[in-house]
Specification:
single chain; 622 residues; alpha/beta; 4-stranded antiparallel beta sheet
């Protein structure tokens, strides 16, 4: 009977997938009959693809694994087709193509018994018998949500799509961003990275793209900064299939197909979209020797870069929630040297500037190495930053006149001082500036100017003066909006006094004591969403991304303490956990998060009439 039910549910799930995809075509019972007749031996665990994507996760013995199905109050875990616990170095954890390790065991029945019918189910390695003592082990699970194969209308969107609150498009007005009605729109977002490194954003190997977009909205963000490289757009390579394993419809597709899918998913969720040209080459950012500090290098010319932007603007301008672009991430020095597979020789450019004897107002010299650096609007024409940004901005506005154009400050997006005397020549309604802020730029030592523990008032006054000088004056003087498109801290940020003091100063500047305290606060995007590294030079693919918000399963925050600090900067009320009455508030979320360390949550699981009808038909035929 158990085997029969497993087969029945497996075939039913596939039939429901077909029903969702062809809602006006095959009736569900007929679809069940068709599949049963044509594939009598089909097991769901062997069925590799799903029209809506797969949910998978693998964690080592030191981490918890969180299964989640939260498309709406009635969503739940309905099946666990795959679950093993065994040697981490053997077998395969590729989503949909899993293989059991030689030293390992199936825990599928146990996991399904624990988790089926729940919305969230937290598991740890210690919950299962160790069949491989003395080895490093992994818990690997694939699960199915009720929402995977039910019409979208069955699952009420809560909270509402952020874009529904705005009259788009957006525009710059004084020192803030407003919608067409003149209402202030405060951007509170997150960077979704990875695409600029591997042509696929983080998470598509373990979670459906729509689930990730939905989770971003449920966490309370209204805005996503999506990073890409010029190479991804201009080369448009075929993506590696294992990187989109949880989204099999993208297998065999090219980078721009994945790019399309991301924009479509974010637009469906009503999330405001900001496209950021993070690198020229597909690599981890940033260093002085990566040959990516300027808007051109030996492989991509300025013309190539401008045409790349024209292509991106034309391709995505039809999406309502695509509101703006970041032209060039972290402009910085470029030095002779190597960075992974990239090599750089700037000798020819250095002769134009006078080498390291050239003026260097923002400390872009790199330890005596041969370097050149962008100059705002002076020096050799080829290195003048402002005119290049103006050229790209105009190309974008030719294609999409409604977009906001973000121009970053020099030296890793720190300095916008030159704007005071030499502003970017683009339409004021379209122009905003971008800045970045990190703790390592500020000295919180006992004798340092930002030692909050020593003298809080003096530390904030010094900190505020520094940011005001660099870019905050644009806000205080009602000159232009500034989006702080990167800041961040590690999961264990409270353990380091330096980071804790910096974050206290930063949060005060962003919220209650800063230049926009009377207007709701500074616009920002956190770095970054992914809790695991995507790879690249100096990086270890799959290792913890210590600044990342999400856990390894892409089902919730890595750390509640870490996320609550970000939430305190002005996020909308997050909607993470659901009950029969709707979504639970922040305090309930925190309380339940603590409870799930020792137990499991039970949620409603209303019957799905068509599914039961088809299941009865299948059992009768069997």
């Amino acid at each position: 009977q158990a085997a029969l039910f497993t087969r029945a549910w497996s075939v039913l799930e596939v039939a429901m997938m077909m029903h969702r995809a062809c809602s006006r075509g095959i009736a569900l019972p007929l679809a069940v009959l068709l599949i049963t007749t044509c594939a009598p031996g089909l097991s769901f665990a062997e069925f590799p693809l799903s029209a809506v994507g797969l949910h998978c996760c693998s964690v080592d013995e030191d981490h918890a694994l969180l299964l989640a199905c939260e498309a709406g109050p009635s969503d739940e875990i309905v099946a666990v087709p795959w679950a093993t616990y065994g040697n981490a170095s053997d077998g395969s954890a590729t989503c949909g193509r899993e293989k059991t390790s030689a030293c390992g065991a199936s825990v599928q029945e146990d996991v399904e018994a624990r988790c089926k019918g729940l919305q969230r189910c937290s598991l740890k390695a210690e919950d299962f018998e160790d069949s491989c003592p003395g080895t490093q082990k992994e818990l690997r699970i694939r699960w199915v949500c009720r929402s995977d194969n039910s019409p979208e209308a069955d699952f009420v969107r809560d909270p509402p799509a952020p874009a529904s609150a705005f009259a788009l498009p957006l525009k710059a007005e004084g020192n803030v961003i407003v919608d067409t009605s003149g209402t202030r729109v405060r951007l509170a977002g997150v960077t979704w990275g990875g695409f600029h490194i591997k042509n696929v954003p983080g998470g598509l190997d373990v979670a459906p793209i729509d689930s990730i977009a939905r989770l971003i909205r449920q966490l309370g963000f209204n805005f996503v900064r999506f990073t890409f490289s010029a190479a991804s757009v201009l080369d448009n390579p075929v993506v590696e299939s294992h990187r989109v394993a949880a989204n099999p419809s993208l297998s065999g597709k090219r980078a721009l197909d994945v790019f399309d899918a991301v924009v479509e998913a974010l637009d469906r969720e009503g999330l405001l979209i900001w496209l950021d040209n993070h690198m020229l080459e597909s690599e981890w950012c940033c260093s002085g020797s990566d040959c990516n500090g300027l808007w051109f290098n030996k492989r991509f010319s300025t013309n190539d870069w401008v045409e790349m932007w024209r292509t991106v603007a034309a391709r995505y301008k039809r999406y309502r929630t695509f509101v703006g672009v970041g032209l060039k991430n972290e402009p910085r020095a470029v030095c002779t040297g190597t960075h992974g597979a990239l090599s750089c020789n700037v000798s020819a450019l250095a002769t134009l500037t006078g080498g390291n004897d050239a003026p260097d107002p923002y400390s872009m010299k790199q330890g005596g190495r041969e370097c050149v650096w962008p100059q705002w609007a002076s020096g050799p024409e080829v290195l003048q930053y402002r005119p290049a940004m103006e050229r790209a901005g105009r190309a974008i506005l030719d294609e999409a006149p409604h977009l906001l154009i973000g121009v970053s400050g020099l030296q890793y997006s720190q300095f916008l001082n030159d704007v005071a005397t030499s502003p970017v020549d683009l339409p004021k309604r379209n122009l905003i500036y971008e800045a970045h802020e990190y703790s390592w730029w500020r000295d919180q030592s006992p004798d340092g100017p930002y030692n909050y523990d020593g003298n809080a008032d003096e530390a904030f006054a010094n900190y505020s003066q520094t940011l005001d000088t660099n870019w905050g004056y644009l806000l205080r003087g009602d000159i232009a909006p500034v989006l702080v498109s990167e800041f961040g801290m590690g999961h264990r940020w409270t353990d380091a006094a330096r980071t804790r003091m910096w974050f206290t100063l930063w949060s005060e500047y962003v919220q209650d004591k800063g230049p926009l305290r009377e207007q709701g606060g500074v616009d920002w995007a956190y770095w970054q969403l992914a809790g695991v590294q995507a790879g690249g030079t100096w990086r270890s693919e799959g290792a913890e991304e210590s600044y990342g918000i999400l856990n390894r399963c892409w089902t919730g925050p890595w750390s509640e303490t870490h996320f609550q600090a970000i939430q305190g900067l002005g996020l909308h009320q997050p909607r993470l956990l659901q009950s029969q009455q709707g979504f639970m508030d922040r305090n309930t979320i925190a309380e339940i998060a603590r409870a799930t360390e020792t137990g499991f949550m039970l949620s409603s699981s209303p019957a799905l009439a068509p599914a039961l009808l088809s299941l009865l038909l299948l059992l009768h035929m069997a």
